[in-house]
From TrEMBL:
It is found in: Cytoplasm. Its main location: cytoplasm. This is SsrA-binding protein. InterPro entries: SmpB, SsrA-bd_prot, SsrA-bd_prot_CS. GO terms for molecular function: RNA binding. It comes from the Bacteria. Required for rescue of stalled ribosomes mediated by trans-translation. Binds to transfer-messenger RNA (tmRNA), required for stable association of tmRNA with ribosomes. tmRNA and SmpB together mimic tRNA shape, replacing the anticodon stem-loop with SmpB. tmRNA is encoded by the ssrA gene; the 2 termini fold to resemble tRNA(Ala) and it encodes a 'tag peptide', a short internal open reading frame. During trans-translation Ala-aminoacylated tmRNA acts like a tRNA, entering the A-site of stalled ribosomes, displacing the stalled mRNA. It comes from Oryzomicrobium terrae. It holds the Pfam family SmpB. Residues 127-149 have a biased composition (Basic and acidic residues). Residues 122-149 are annotated as: Disordered. The keyword RNA-binding applies.
Length: 149
């Protein structure tokens, strides 16, 4: 069950591989995500000290958040992956010119998971050709709909 999707990632990058990762969250963050107060459009994934971290995910705290907690809406959150997965991703990002982008925030068996993609950036002409292809598919659908009538 999807919570939020980063459509901008598909527009700006070719997604080669998708990996599901857990998130280290605080209690108020889980409540805010369940209320739908999350945005991953401007976020990105970095590798620091052998750990994979999510930067820029914006979580708006609920007004009923605890009084003793000072919520930071864009704090750095650690992604939870196996060591072998982390090592593989580090190798691919450093050698091959790939980057890691957050794609989808969703629930898996009651837990909040983030799907990250191993991606390569698109050039301007790639974006234009994708846009033309999308327009053509929409036009085809409309023509088929008219033909069936």
């Amino acid at each position: 069950m999807s919570i939020t999707v980063n459509k901008k990632a598909f527009h700006d990058y070719f997604i080669e591989e998708k990996i599901e990762a857990g998130l280290a969250l605080q209690g108020w963050e889980v409540k805010a995500i369940r209320a739908g107060r999350v945005n991953i459009k401007e976020s990105y994934v970095v590798i620091k000290k052998g750990e994979i971290q999510l930067l820029g995910m914006h979580l708006t705290a609920l007004p009923t958040a605890s009084t003793h907690v000072t919520p930071d809406p864009t704090r750095t959150r650690k992604l939870l992956l196996h060591r072998a997965q982390i090592d593989k991703l580090i190798g691919q990002v450093e050698r091959s010119g790939y980057t890691l982008v957050p794609i989808d925030l969703h629930y898996t068996r009651g837990r909040i998971k983030l799907e990250i993609g191993l991606a390569k950036g698109k050039k301007l002409h790639d974006k234009r050709s994708d846009e033309k292809e999308k327009d053509w598919k929409r036009e085809q659908g409309q023509l088929m709909k008219e033909r069936q009538r």
